[in-house]
Amino acid sequence: MGIPEMRRNQWLLLVLIWCGTVAFGADLDASCINPDGLPGRCVSIRECGPLMKIYRKGLITPLESKFIEKSQCGVSAEKGALVCCASMLPQPPNCGADMSNRIFGGQKTALDEFPWLALINYRYENGSTKFHCGASLINSRYVVTAAHCVEDHAHQKPFSVRLGEWDVNQDIDCDEDDGETCADAPLDVDIEKIIIHEGYHPRDASSYNDIALIRLTQDVQMSAYISPVCLPVKDSQRTRSIVGTKAYAAGWGRTESGANSNVKLKVQLVVNDLQSCSNGYRPRGVVLRDTQLCAGGMRGQDTCSGDSGGPLTKLDKASNYLYGIVSFGSSKCGVKDFPGIYTAVSKYVDWIESHLE
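The structure corresponding to this sequence follows.
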């Protein structure tokens, strides 16, 4: 097969992307099975990372062209051609485990609560190591975090991720109430690759596109204490306003005393209107966009620098979804009228899926 035929296949794919060739089929976001027999969703081909990767190669083989043709599942007046896109992201009930009926009092979490929460371990020039930022497990091989947590620093380098942790000062964590129920030992996995959003700029005061993926060196075995969070992949979830609703942030960040906590903590926050948040931050040279969320702003209730990169999650139909990644906030934690700022994950689902291998 020559280059002209490959280019013809690319042209046919371009027609499919912009025009659509199917006048019937499944609805947008409907469940489907792709040509490889894998479950997926019926979405616009422009929102399907794996198929758009094929197009961006420039030269498309007949087999690839045939695969895309067989992937068609419908057409939408708004979105154009729809294809069955098999996601590498887990779907309920295989993500976002709800342990709310097992939560006990106070700010502390249960041993198996927020099982997607991860810690990033850094190595310093003198050889010492320290946990600093948080992250969230999104499938068996990737965690998502804030870009500012993994940008290049001369004095520190992220080298591993810890999963299944509760108390960083204990080798084995046990329930404080009965003393008998104990979690598995936490798992440390080395980092294979870090993918920082290409639109992130460290010197940008507004911290746009503050998101990054970490690929681990091996697949993670899931358990009651290690499992992924769900991402808002459906159109209805991506476009839904969550302003005025409650969400949870979790991590080992700064407490009121200014010290890092040794145990995993949680705080319930109200998601605020972006415009009202902008008023407080604008005098500081920060202009917020719709790719960001703000939550909190109640005295003593907020996420702090130790929680950077950690999750802001919401419960939806018995599964927890990752809606925010802790980005930045007031230099003093828990300051009234200065909500924390989060990267809005719903705006980056396509970016995430397009970078998964």
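Confidence is low (pLDDT under 50) at residues 1-8, 17-23, 101-106.
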